[in-house]
Design brief:
By secondary structure, this protein is mainly β. The protein contains four helices and 22 strands. It folds into two domains: 102 residues, Roll (Ubiquitin-like (UB roll)); 238 residues, Beta Barrel (Porin), CATH 2.40.160.50. The chain starts with a helix and ends in a 5-residue tail after the last strand.
Length: 437
């Protein structure tokens, strides 16, 4: 009898019901085998989408570390607002694993808008990142950017054949007006950049922290002032600027993704670095050979009060002198507080820091408050971007708010006010429907 009581106490202490939720896990010794795995909460999503993310299967030991990693993989899909996993001891001595999820609304009519520096845009379309419940993405969108019409159609299958292979395509046109500025900030010209393209993409996740891929893009880029307003055409005449050029490029890309960004409801945590190396010299059909390198690195950390501290470093290199291949920095997703495209160069580097803290967290709405600092530089010579001379540098700081829907994919109303340090402008408010980064 005493021996039975001791055995009962041992199992009561070391093998309790183990719950894994959004806040962490309770560690238990991985000594029992899993006899059954069940998934509840699925409506649109097919069960195989969940099972292929799990690192545990029937017959495996009930390892809580592998379970927590499996749950994080499910959260990172972006199609669930809640993910929980539970180990249930059974009388037979085995373990039943139960996964419970709550799906997000992923079929989204897009009514997007934004503005910065007096340039506004709006978009109408539809996107579904969980097409037919198979975790495939399809979208189509119309965009009006500063009065210019554009459109995009895209598709991604992120788990071809249930593996870590991703295939997809982009077809579209993106047109927008650009302005040229002197070093003192005076406008010296304007043009419309009209880019039409078809792109085939592929990538393979070799490790959970490393993904590599290739893509092939055909694009035709035209610059002209034919559709500009009269005052902009007058500006070009006054400065003897006559933009009228067209280029055809066939660009081969090599892409790398290092690290992983994890989701925790309205927060993110982790390190993610994306690198894209493109060259038009790999294939025939281009008007002129050139090379382009892009980098985007983000680091997000979770802090008390469900706050988030984020860092982003973004850079680019190009060896083309043509205006249509230059990098334009200022406004929108680069540096807040400056006029759209205020700075221009073949090479650039920008940095953003944001601190986000919520004042209200509800089941349908989250209110976040943001403080940020943006910095950057452009130059026609690569190494001058990092030097103290022969470059144009800029800095800004400000505050903002976010209205976030935890149940709708990527819906976050953003309003920011920025103070530019080097070049003042009349409008320092920017807004949009997603986080800045």
């Amino acid at each position: 009898m005493k021996k039975s009581i001791l055995v009962f106490i041992f199992y009561a202490v070391f093998y309790p019901l183990t719950v894994f939720g959004e806040e962490g896990l309770l560690r238990v010794p991985p000594v029992r085998q899993i006899s059954k795995i069940t998934v509840t909460g699925l409506d649109k999503t097919r069960p195989h989408v969940v099972f292929r993310e799990l690192l545990l299967k029937t017959g495996d030991l009930a390892d809580p570390i592998l379970l927590e990693e499996s749950l994080q993989r499910l959260r990172n899909l972006g199609i669930f607002s809640r993910v929980q996993g539970l180990f249930f001891p059974k009388k037979s001595g085995s373990i039943e694993l139960k996964i419970d999820v709550e799906e997000k609304w992923t079929f989204i009519p897009i009514v997007n808008f934004g503005g910065d520096s007096g340039v506004n845009y709006f978009a109408l379309g539809v996107i579904d990142i969980n097409l037919l419940g198979h975790y495939m993405e399809f979208g189509s969108i119309y965009i009006n950017f500063g009065g210019q019409d554009s459109g995009l159609l895209w598709y991604r299958d992120r788990r071809v054949g249930g593996k870590n292979l991703k295939l997809g395509f982009d077809i579209g046109r993106f047109a927008r007006s650009r302005r040229l500025f002197e070093s003192d900030g005076d406008e010296s010209g304007a043009f419309i950049r009209d880019r039409r393209f078809v792109k085939l993409v592929s990538s393979y996740k070799i490790h959970k922290y490393f993904e590599a891929g290739t893509s092939l893009e055909y694009r035709n880029i035209e610059i002209s002032d034919d559709k500009l307003k009269g005052q902009d055409q007058d500006l070009n005449e006054d400065n003897n600027f006559d933009p009228d050029e067209s280029t055809r490029d066939v660009v081969g890309w090599v892409d790398f993704i290092l690290g992983r960004m994890n989701s925790d409801r309205e927060r993110q945590f982790g390190l993610l670095s994306e690198w894209n190396l493109g060259s038009s010299a790999l294939f025939g059909g281009s008007d002129r050979n050139y090379t382009e390198i892009l980098m985007d690195t983000r680091y997000m950390m979770r802090l008390p009060l469900r706050s988030n501290l984020g860092f982003r470093v973004k850079g680019g290199y190009g060896d083309s002198d043509r205006l249509q291949h230059h990098n334009y920095i200022g406004g929108f997703e680069t540096i807040r507080g400056y006029r759209d495209g205020r700075y221009r160069g073949r090479n650039f580097m920008i940095g953003n820091i944001e601190y986000r803290v919520p004042s209200y967290i509800g089941s349908q709405l989250i209110l976040q408050h943001v403080a940020f600092f943006d910095t950057g530089a452009v130059s026609d010579e690569l190494w001058n971007v990092f030097s103290a001379s022969d470059r144009e540098s800029f800095n800004s700081a400000g505050i903002g708010i976010r209205l976030i829907s935890p149940k709708i994919y990527l819906l976050s109303v953003r309003i920011d006010y920025a103070k530019a340090f080097e070049d003042q402008k009349d409008d320092s408010v920017s807004f949009g429907l997603q986080q800045y980064f």
